[in-house]
Design brief:
Blueprint lengths: L6 E9 L2 E10 L4 E6 L8 H11 L3 E11 L6 E3 L1 H20 L9 H5 L5 E3 H60 L1 H18 L5 H15 L2 H19 L5 H21 L3 H21 L4
Helix pairs in contact: 1-4, 4-7, 4-9, 7-8, 8-9
């Protein structure tokens, strides 16, 4: 299925006293460029979110934003006894060392001890953070599904546009083949006229050399290979549009090949009608390539 690299999705949710809002945007890029902006304290979420994005997306510049709003909630404080013993041991060591050096220190108050990092913990906050992380991961899976769905919807529109442009290229290729066949008598007349001028201007000329030069001119003016290759490129592009999986890179390469054949066709045209068709081909191919730039 063809997907676009351009998409947007957003979701909002709540868990306990915390509410959040996701926003995910995608634009075209040569590869997969992920930019995650998460609030402080949720950095552990980055790895699973990045893995999910890499599994679900192949190309695109994708920006993911998460905003949190935490409401004031009652806190349940508890003492970490292990940390408390470590702090008290450290204080005892300081007191002994100071006494040995003849330095008198004031006795610390309980508030001083409790203010040390890790002595007091908020058990409720820790439990809430774990629940919040689980809720956010679950909600993100829905966000990613909505984002991919929008990519697929935009991709269906892109497929319709590119298919229509391929139809135009096919019609113009058929018209080029017809114009190339119709110019044959005029091309022969031009070659004959050139030959007569050469013969009139040169007293002695090798007939074999003349035949070689005429054959070379005929080959340079022949556009059969270009028309055949355009037909092959059209078939290949249609197959890519109807196959599963990312097709953007291959379609972009084909667009370059389309343009190469159209340029060669114009350079070999030697006909006003065929030149006009070649220019129309280039215009449609350029329009198609603009659309292909957004295909994943």
């Amino acid at each position: 299925m063809i997907r676009s690299m351009t998409a947007f999705a957003s979701r909002a949710g709540t868990s306990g006293a915390t509410s959040w809002r996701w926003e995910m945007r995608g634009v075209n890029a040569r590869g997969l460029d992920l930019r995650l902006r998460l609030p402080d304290g949720l950095t552990a979420l980055e790895a699973p979110l990045r893995s999910a994005l890499q599994a679900g997306l192949a190309r695109g510049n994708v920006t993911l934003n998460l905003r949190l709003n935490r409401e004031e909630a009652s806190e349940t404080l508890s003492v970490d006894e292990t940390q408390l013993e470590a702090v008290l041991s450290a204080l005892d060591l300081v007191q002994e060392r100071a006494f040995a050096m003849g330095v008198t220190l004031a006795q610390p108050h309980a508030a001083d001890v409790l203010s040390q990092k890790g002595v007091l913990t908020n058990a409720t906050a820790e439990e809430d953070d774990e629940a919040l992380a689980a809720a956010l991961q679950e909600d993100f899976s829905q966000l990613l599904a909505e984002f991919i769905h929008m990519r697929e919807t935009e991709g269906a529109a892109l497929k319709a546009l590119i298919t229509g442009q391929l139809d135009q290229i096919a019609d113009l290729t058929a018209a080029a083949a017809k114009a190339a066949a119709e110019r044959v008598p005029q091309t022969r007349e031009n070659l004959s006229a050139a030959l007569r001028r050469v013969v009139d201007d040169v007293a002695e000329i090798d007939p074999q050399r003349i035949a070689q030069e005429l054959a070379l001119l005929a080959v340079k003016a022949d556009v059969t290979e270009e028309i055949d290759r355009l037909g092959a490129h059209i078939a290949a592009a249609r197959d890519l549009l109807n196959n599963d999986g990312p097709a953007g890179r291959k379609l972009d390469f084909l667009a370059q090949e389309f343009n190469r054949e159209a340029n060669t066709l114009c350079s070999k045209a030697q006909s006003k009608d065929l030149t006009a068709i070649g220019l129309d081909l280039k215009a449609v191919i350029d329009q198609m390539r603009e659309q292909i730039q957004n295909v994943e």
